[in-house]
Write a structure and sequence with these properties.
The chain has about 300 residues and is of the alpha+beta class. Helices cover about 30% and strands about 25% of the residues. Helix 1 runs antiparallel to helix 3. The longest helix has 21 residues. The structure holds 2,5-anhydro-1,6-di-O-phosphono-D-glucitol and manganese (II) ion (2 copies).
Amino acid sequence: PFVSGQLTRLLTDIAIAAKIVNHQVNRAGLAGILGGTDRVNVQDEQQQKLDVFADRTFLRMLSAGKSVAGIGSEEREEFVLCGNEGRNGKYVVLIDPLDGSSNIDVNVSIGTIFSIHRRTTPLGEPLVDHDFLQPGSHQVAAGYILYGSSTMLVYTTGTGVNGFTLDPAVGEFFLSHPSMSFPERGATYSINDALLARATAPTQTFIAGCREASEPPFRARYIGSLVSDFHRNLIHGGIYLYPSLEGKPEGKLRLLYECAPLAFIAEQAGGLAEDDTGRILDRVPTNLHERVPFYVGSRHLMHALNAC
Ligand code: AHG
Ligand code: MN
Ligand code: MN
């Protein structure tokens, strides 16, 4: 009911920025943009050159359009206001410009994750914290770009999930995966095994169960790029876990840039996404860079985890 063409325009801008980033990702080894910078981001992680490039590209593209009022990026401490101090655009964007940074230098699939909210303050007023700190259930759209063996854009506007593949010869995304949904059965689990000893009891019990199961036998798959792990599990059926850890109860992944958008996609694809207490989409953020334990994937596997 609120669609006036601005959201379409915004998604088109995201697709254009994605093509620019994709081009750099593809020639990263040649372009002298592999490796780290001497900067550390607000998450206390060393920024890679491609993190910075992707962040700047998406921010520049989104602030040049008329539809975005403000942007929160994983790479920036504060949110950024677009034209006229954020008074004009209808939408707020939250973005993980480059997901899977540790895989950049080794030529392994990486991604971008984005989340789009309608502003809460009236048009014409400056944006405030509240515009950015909305629960995931308020998202208007969410998606990811996967820079993999082919480049894909997968997104939802709340009426199912569609996947588009970039045809590099034409330079355009084409619908290749209509109405994506988790398959009924799936037997892949994805977790950083090195963390398991510090994980909570239900996670340990669940993984032990997966290892023992014979019908069907499980596969462990962990790429270390959330977008890629999520995408594989969406296609084949599976579950991804980044649990609460001893000494780090909030886990690692970020609610606004990673978990909420993927939770929206997961639910739209018939799956579930939760933290230790319930639905990710119900969680009201208290700060921009908040972290949460994250469990996401096929419904039957999420139920099995909850039974542990
Ligand atoms: P980012 O590169 O945006 O900081 O995200 C990295 C995330 C996610 O992509 C991945 O699943 C996870 O970190 C891997 O963490 P571990 O190395 O702790 O397994
Ligand atoms: Mn990430
Ligand atoms: Mn990132």
